Amino acid sequence: MIVPIAAIAVGFIAQDASRRRREREEREALERVLALARPLVLDDRRRAEEGGDARRGDAEDASASASASAVAVARRDAKDALNDDAGSSGDVDDAARPQCRFCFETHGALISPCMCAGTAAYVHESCLRRWQVVSLGTHGVSESYCRVCGAEFTLPKAPLASRVRCWFNPLASDRLEQYFRVFLQIVLDTIVPTERTVALERPKQLLPLVSFAELRIWARREIRKGNKILRFWARVSNACEWAYSAFILSYIGAISSVAGVDAIAAAVHQSRPSTPAEDLAFRCSRNVFASLVRFSRWLVVRTSPVHRIVAMSDRYPQYSFG
What we know:
This is RING-CH-type domain-containing protein. Keywords: Metal-binding, Zinc, Zinc-finger. There is one protein chain. With 322 residues, this protein is an all-alpha fold. Among the domains are: 105-167, Zinc/RING finger domain, C3HC4 (zinc finger) (Herpes Virus-1, 2-Layer Sandwich); 170-320, subunit c (vma5p) of the yeast v-atpase, domain 2 (Up-down Bundle), CATH 1.20.1460. It has 7 helices and 4 strands; from the N terminus they run αββαααβαααβ. Helix 4 (173-191) packs across helix 5, helix 5 (206-225) packs across helix 6 (228-271) and helix 6 (228-271) packs antiparallel against helix 7 (276-315). The longest helix is centred in the first third of the chain and has 95 residues, at 2-96. It is elongated. The relative contact order is 0.06.
């Protein structure tokens, strides 16, 4: 009995020792595995901590940059507001200060030569006189009245030399136009002379030619300026010219019609004997056109004196080249 029990006890002791040895070996193997894995865990933890620090740093940097941007934007907005206030105040000051209606400048001595108010009330005297000179040379109008309020400009008279030089500007458009008309009239009178045409042979003949040309320039400038008498005379003379031209054309047309009727009647008579009805038609047509000839001639004769006066005022003296 003692031997089997001892054998069983030895077997249990051997199994227990074997079990402890396996547990020790498993524990040692686990420790070795943990020892190998610990550096990796530490590296991961360190990387995580570094990433957290970086993220915290980025967040802090982003927060700092956002704060700086907000401060910069606030400063810029404040600066823009100050500039806008300064600009608006400058605009208000510029609008409040009087300025010239021609050059829009605020510096220099400004005057108020008419009844205008507001921004159109002030001008530089030099700008106004320059505008008057340009207007006279371009349109033949001296512009002595304001176009806005209609009041006459209250300006001291310019020096006499300046006024003469401005009036007799040789490059003024109305002066060039008038002397071109004179030259054209001389050419026409040379080609088709009239009873009033005189040959241009002596230098002293230029005196009345230039004098009447300048007189017509003055009259046209006065008409543009608003002279009622000269404006009425211009309308009357134009109406007389058109009427006299219409009478002349009707007289020529009536004579041509009479000649045409006579030519047709002669051609019919030569080709064949005409019937009484055709002869009656020819006689009636000829009588009608002959009446028009007599009436047109009567109109031309009656209006000739008026036409002479108008022609003399518009074309005297009439010269031809040789």
